[in-house]
Amino acid sequence: NGAMRINQRIQTGSLGYFNPVTSSIYTLDRWKVQLSGSFDTDSAKIYHSTTAPSQHGFTKTLKVDIGNTETPSSGQRANIGQRIEGQDLQHLRYGTSSAKTMTLSFWVYSNKTGIYSVQIVQENKKYVLYEYTISSANTWEKKTITIVGNTADATPNDNTVALYVDWFLCANSDVTASATSSWTTGTSYRASTNQVNLWDNGSNDWYLTGVQLEIGSQATAFEH
Known about the structure:
By secondary structure, the protein is mostly beta strands. It has strands at 25-26, 32-36, 45-49, 61-65, 77-85, 102-110, 114-122, 126-134, 141-147, 161-171, 176-177, 180-185, 191-192, 205-215.
C-alpha cells in the first residue's frame, strides 16, 4: 500500500479520520502509528488524503494533521511505519555473505522543514538509522535511502515480524541515537538525535506516499 490507495478501516469510530490519542493503532492498510510512554497526540488526526504529487501518478496520501502542540517527555516518541514478515524477506539472503542491498524511496510533504528520520530494524536485533531533510515547506520532495545488506543476522522463514520500517515525527532525547548506515546492535524505535518535533505547532502537517522498498542500490520508478 505504498501509494496509500487502500483504506479499509476508514476511520476511528465515526470521526472521519484516525485519532490515536495515546494508543498505537493501524490506520491506512498496513500503516501503523506507534506511540511510546503514553505520548499524547491529543487532537492529531490521520487522514486518507487526496493532496498528492499527481504529476508523478499519485492520487492518495497518508496525512498527519497535528492540531495541538505537544512536547514528548522521557521515553516518548511518535512514528508511523510497516512491519514485514520474515517469510517475505528470504530473497534478501540476510545472514549470508550475499545479503542484498535495498533502496527505500518515498515522497514527503510538510509545512515544517528540517531533519526527520527513518529507522529500519531487524527483529529488534540490529538497526540502521537514516536522516532525511524536508528542505522546502509545502513542496513534494522525493527521498531515497540505500540500505546495505545485513550479512550477520538471518531472518526467520515464518510469519513473525522480521523487519520494521518506521518514519519518526517526534521523539524525546532519551529515545534517540546517532544516524548510522551500518547495522548496529540495539533496540528499535530510535529517532535521529536531530529529529524535529512535528508537534511544536498546532498548524503543522506531514504527508507520505509513493513508498517503495526494493532490491538494488538505485530507486526505480514507482510500480503502481
